[in-house]
Design goal:
Elements: E1 14-17, H1 25-35, E2 43-47, H2 50-57, E3 60-63, H3 67-71, E4 76-85, H4 91-105, E5 109-117, H5 122-134, E6 137-140, H6 143-151, E7 157-158
Helix pairs in contact: 4-5
Length: about 160
């Protein structure tokens, strides 16, 4: 693993959360790039379609309905891949900052990897800012996200898109 790898920042086992299992080729490519940096045998992916995610990526996967229970057995929660924080997100996406904050309050290591950040909608703005502030590592995929987070007083590392690894 290179010096940019997320693998050196995790404590296993790792729960990966993102837009997975929605049959979006780009999101699945980002998950594949992220998994290249980790020990797949010690990773679980939260997915809308766990059986498909497990088959495609060769990892353990659980449903969104098991999200809270999955935190009990994982030391790190890694939120990864794509534009996960913005006003365009659906109901589940808008809950992601709260889920991440819950994981953090439960003592889980919190990492944000390969994301982009837009100015969130009003309802999720405070939670998104707290989530990003709580993360041990924030690595974004574009300069615009670096600049937005700098305006919030948060240092973010600029990395490439996970799909391009």
């Amino acid at each position: 693993m290179n010096g940019r790898s997320v693998g050196r920042h995790v404590e296993y086992p790792v729960l990966i959360v993102g837009g997975y299992g929605y049959r979006n080729v780009g999101d699945e490519a980002m998950l594949a790039g992220l998994l290249q940096q980790l020990d797949r045998s010690r990773v679980t992916v939260l997915s809308r379609m766990p059986a498909g995610t497990a088959a495609i990526h060769g990892v353990r996967s659980v449903s969104v309905g098991r999200a809270i229970g999955a935190l009990r057995t994982h030391r790190t929660m890694l939120i990864g891949g794509g534009a996960l924080f913005g006003p365009h997100m659906g109901a589940l996406g808008r809950m992601l900052p709260l889920y991440g904050l819950f994981a953090h309050s439960a003592g889980r290591r919190l990492l944000l990897e390969g994301i982009s950040v837009d100015e969130p909608g009003r309802a999720s703005s405070v939670a998104t800012r707290r989530l990003v502030s709580a993360a041990r590592r924030v690595r974004v995929r574009d300069q615009r996200s670096v600049d937005l987070l700098a305006g919030w007083g948060i240092d973010a590392e600029l990395g490439g898109d996970l799909a391009g690894l």
